[in-house]
Amino acid sequence: MVGCHPDLAVETRGLTRRFGELLAVDHLDLLVPQGMVFGLLGRNGAGKTTTIKMLTTLLAPTEGTARIAGFDIGTQPARVRRLVGYVPQLLSADGALTALENLLVFARLYHIPRAQRRTRIDAALASVGLQDAAHKLVRDFSGGMIRRLEIVQSMLHRPAVLFLDEPTIGLDPVARHGIWEQLRNLIAQEGTTLFLTTHDMEEADELCGQVAIMHRGTVVVHGTPEELKARLGAHANLDDVFVAYSAATEETEEGALRDVQRTRRTARRLG
Ligand SMILES: Nc1ncnc2c1ncn2[C@@H]1O[C@H](COP(=O)(O)OP(=O)(O)OP(=O)(O)O)[C@@H](O)[C@H]1O
């Protein structure tokens, strides 16, 4: 069955998620064209990861709908799962397995035909310079190598939309630039739409064709990085835009602590 707007990679209508009293995502309306690199920005706890979890069918919305390449996350979740890749904020690769074993597990999970598995895996490892590390245990990898592995793993089934939750968190500048280059190569080769979150405004400016700034579960502004910077004046950068639109507000003590702990845990494990 063909979806409604196959030219849109992501379309949300009133997408909402509550956790008890907390409105984590508040009637979100987003349109992301296919082939776009889209950045969802916002302070800790703004609702970015919750949005991604709903769009990848890992979390059910409380209200509203969303479509991925025209397929509904609520009524066509199996179709959606085949169309998306997801690199979560926390480590997803298994440290006790080699890079090759991690990719083989994933290839089986996604029903990649047995005859194609090794060819696709070898090409994937080579595309991110990990061919010589295929038989090494992932727990001995550097943070940058793990991220590269996770990115190609999440793309092994050739998803139409790749969701990346803070892809370069905890990485040094050289590794970070390496990941950007790998992502650009993958987009050029596969035409994949990227939907990423980041707290790194240089990363958003470098990679994203469009960004949206989320605050307390809702988008407060969106546009190209150039448009948003121009609104603030000739010398504004994306950090200025972020600060201007993510008004300083009190976070709940509990939420803020949890968010910081989680971010540091990820950074420590990747460092
Ligand atoms: N499973 C959960 N149960 C209860 N509250 C949750 C749960 N997951 C997220 N939250 C809360 O929902 C809000 C949005 O969280 P979310 O992780 O989506 O934010 P974020 O924008 O991704 O933050 P960060 O930049 O720190 O990753 C936060 O207040 C968070 O504490």
Structurally, how many domains make up the residues? 1
The proportion of residues in beta strands is: 15-25%
Task: Sketch the major β-sheet.
Answer: 6 strands, mixed
Number of strands: 10
Task: Give the number of helices.
Answer: 10
Q: How does the helix and strand content classify structurally?
A: alpha/beta
**CATH classification, class level:** Alpha Beta
* CATH topology title: Rossmann fold
User: Whole-number average pLDDT?
Assistant: 89
Helix and strand sequence: EEEHEEHEHHHEHEHEEHHH
**Judging by the overall fold, what is the CATH architecture?**
3-Layer(aba) Sandwich
Please give a quick description of this structure.
By secondary structure, the chain is α/β, with parallel strands linked by helices.
Which terms would index this structure?
binds adenosine-5'-triphosphate, about 270 residues, alpha/beta, Rossmann fold
Which SSEs are present, and which pair or pack?
Layout: E1 8-19, E2 22-33, E3 37-42, H1 48-55, E4 63-68, E5 71-72, H2 77-83, E6 84-87, H3 99-109, H4 114-127, H5 143-154, E7 161-165, H6 173-190, E8 193-197, H7 201-207, E9 210-215, E10 218-223, H8 225-232, H9 238-245, H10 253-270
Parallel strand pairs: 3-8, 3-9, 6-7, 7-8
Antiparallel strand pairs: 1-2, 1-4, 4-5, 9-10
Residues 19, 22, 24, 42, 44-50, 255, 258-259, 263 line the site of adenosine-5'-triphosphate (ATP).
